Amino acid sequence: MNYRQLQAFRAVMEAGTVVGAAHLLNISQPSVSAHIANLEHSLKIQLFIRQGGRIIPTAEAHLLHEEAGHVVKGMARLRRLAADIQQLEAGRLVIGAYPALSSIVLPRFIGGFARRHPKLHLTFLPEASMRIAELVASKQLDIGLMTMPAIDPATTCDLIFETASICVLPLDHPLASADVIDAADLRDETFIALGREDGSRQAVERSFEDAGVHVEPRFEAHFSDSACALVAEGLGLSVVDPFAAERWRGKLAIRPFKPYVPCHVYLTRSRTHVPSLLQETFERGLREFLEETFRNDPAASYRHS
Q: How many CB atoms lie within 10 A of CB 253?
């Protein structure tokens, strides 16, 4: 018993004749007759009685008709779903990302991706990097995006993008007119530091030490988006990743910071997880999006200087 045999059976039941069924299915009459004969042989049930060119359904055929309809419709849905999957239109993704990437950059990418894949179902969880690593290891996320590499043997982790940290200042700050903010420029400024668990915190502190500048942060923010919000309130300056700063364009002055302080995006997933074609397309597209969006950032020219 196969899909075409069931299709032919339902068509004969609905049309009442082999000729009508052939017209419904757009196949030849002999093909319809062959499908019916093969179905009867497979089921070992007589479905139709042939009388002088007429075809009369048996009681058994009436019993099977409704169930055959469910099967045919289910198989049709499976065929459509398989085609959607093959064309990368359908699928489910569960993604976790650290807050700075989640504030505007990742939603912007997801917006374009979802429009290109209209049957995508996506769950998006902003979480701290350490929590993302835990969720990936326990297979609660398909993709985790973190600021630091995961070291859990249950996961794989790849650096997919690196760019430069930037300095954010109030729009009316005297340093806002500078092309580049050097660590030494912050000697007498009120500084807003990121939390000590942030990977860039130590690098920023080293830049001050190398410049011979003692900076005692007055404020500390766990996330870079929160640091930007404090800067917007006129409470000081900060050095953050460019992803969080995107949400504050036009509200803050955003300047390259020297020396180069790297910002990383690591992609992690469970070591036993087999990515779908849709997930592979998402990951590849995200890499390209980050490169296209941030590769021409003025801060990038100060890399490793």
A: 22
In a domain, 305, yes or no: no
Query: Is residue 300 assigned to a domain?
Result: no
* Domain at 46, CATH number: 1.10.10.10
Residue 152 lies in a domain: yes
Element (H, E) at 262: strand 262-270
Helix (H, G, I), strand (E, B) or coil at 214: coil
Q: For position 232, which CATH number holds? A: 3.40.190.10
Residue 42 C-beta-side C-alpha neighbours within 13 Å = 12
Q: Is 166 exposed, middle or buried (0-12, 13-18, 19+ CB in 10 A)?
A: buried
pLDDT higher for 133 or 198? Answer: 133
Q: What is the pLDDT of residues 180-195, one digit of tens each?
A: 999 999 998 999 999 8
- Domain housing 113: 92-161+264-294
The arithmetic mean of pLDDT across residues 81-102, rounded, is: 73
CB 160 within 8 A of CB 151: no
Interior angle at CA 226, CA 224 and CA 229, nearest 5: 115
Query: Which residues, including other chains, have CB under 8 Å from residue 192's CB and lie 6 or more apart?
Result: 217, 218, 219, 220, 221, 227, 230, 231, 235, 236, 237, 238
- Tracing tokens 């490793």 back to the chain, one arrives at 304
Cβ atoms within 10 Å, residue 39:
20
Least confident range of 88-92, 118-122, 205-209, 227-231: 88-92
Same domain flag for 169 and 243: yes
β-sheet bridge partners, residue 50: 55
**Range in 51-55, 143-147, 163-167, 262-266 with the lowest mean pLDDT:** 51-55
Residue 127 within a domain: yes
Q: How confident is the model at residue 112 (pLDDT cuts 50, 70, 90)?
A: very high
pLDDT at site 304: 35
Contact (CB, 8 A) for 25 and 32: yes
